[in-house]
Write a structure and sequence with these properties.
single chain; alpha/beta; Rossmann fold; seven-stranded mixed β-sheet; 7 helices; about 35% helix
Amino acid sequence: MDIRIDVSTLKRITDVNQERNIYVHSNPIARDIFWQRIEKLFNYITEYTGNDALVLDFGGGSGVFAKSLCTFFNRVELVDLDTVCAEKIKNEFRLNNLKIISSDIRSFTPLQKYDLVIAADVLEHFKDLTVPLEFIHSNLKKDGLLMVSLPTENRLYEIGRKMIRKKKPVDHFHSSSNVIEFISSRGFKLLEKAYIPRYLVPVPLFEIVVFIKFPTRKR
């Protein structure tokens, strides 16, 4: 399956000035790296889940992953504070099996629990990681999966950011290692992880990680 959406299409239907919209960046390497994150997540999805799973694209307001998710899954939900771009992608590709929720997770109560939650470059934006992790853990089924993409924020990442003339967002509060450690201490077991991008060898700019929920032990 072709995961990537044509640059010209994205420029036409999404906000090219939005900070998170690297998918239309003038630098093709920057675009490729960001698409590799999505492609690796999708590889894990097809390995670990089936079409009948109920999936939540957590913080997926850019909408770029929605097209592929809706092609694979029968039902997809997406929650974000800003869903304008996601709505445009839904309309452009007629994603009738996509439900978009514009909401803060603090006030969002899903109607049923999810088999899979995807958080692609989202969790590092929460200063208090307890907020998203409590929501995710509470709304995942027993043995549900959490798949995340996280910026490493290492020295190499800093160099890459300078090369594409991007400043570190003020709300990048955590490195990938910090977030992974936190998730692992909050009722999740790490199953797999990989570095992205991969050219001749993996380059540690992003970590793509698969977790499984397990029952919280009583103290």
